[in-house]
User: Fold this.
Amino acid sequence: MFDSMLDEQIRALQADACARMESAKSLEELEAVRVEALGRKGVLAQFSKEMGKLAPEERAGAGKLLNAAKQALEEAFERRKHSFEEAKLAARLDAEWVDLTLPAAGPRPGSLHPITQIQMEIEDLFVSLGFMVLDGPEVETEYHNFDALNIPRDHPARDTQDTFWLTDGNLLRTHTSPVQVRGMERFKPPLRMVAPGRVFRNESIDASHEHTFYQIEGMMIDHDVSVAHLLYFMQTLLHEVFRRDVKVRLRPGFFPFVEPGFELDIQCFICGGSGCAVCKHSGWVEQLGCGLVNPNVLRTSGIDPEEWNGFAFGLGLTRLVMMRYGIEDIRLLQSGDLRFLQQF
Ligand SMILES: [Zn+2]
Assistant:
């Protein structure tokens, strides 16, 4: 009696577990059924224990049945598991299917940033005029950024350049002018150099101010360099950048490292000089700062101002790009927005 009850229970368990394995909807569900039936604390293990209570002659029959059930369930489990794996592989093959007969996507070349483009044009121009292109560190010493340019610690010109100071006393260069100092230190006159690069100011950001922007700086040191030389090179530069004849004028301007110093204006392209919103109705647009190198600056870098003199100029590449393309918001240039950049 006891024997046939156990037999029946084993058969019922086998049928039930097999059915549930067949209908399992996931590997997790399948595994749960396996643990419940075949696990160390599963139902079959319980039956094994109970077999101990049977008479020896009954035990053999029940044991056979139990083993058969175990084997059947293990097979059902493997079968179902295999079907899950096949389905998974099929789904993956489906998803990753590639039609090798399709034509390849064409290359999508990027383009240079407009600031890089204008920088390279100006470099090419000055190289053709016999200038070197120099590079300098973006983390500068206070000496190269200020002192050597005739801007000592108590000079008011320091206040006009909101500076990022580093904890070790160095700073992020506020202009490209320190490269002039490094150029004079390294190459003695006669010297012709330009130095493009990235500069930093601790500015509040708006449509016309950025904390990071680009300048180009230039210098020529030789015998008897005059304002006429300066004007020639500046006119050549502006002609190249704007690809047209540009009318310029000089106004006195103060920069500690030049004497005399000038602001160079160009006649407004938009109105041709009659006055408009772009030129604030003056007919002229401020373009760059320049002048003849202050003798103190030459002396500091070990050049005798009695023998040598020169001119220097600096202008914002960022501003030049904005003028050339009519860009009204400086923030677009470093936004990384491809919709903007793809136009160049
Ligand atoms: Zn105008």
User: Anything to note?
Assistant: The chain has eleven helices and nine strands. The chain has a mean pLDDT of 87.
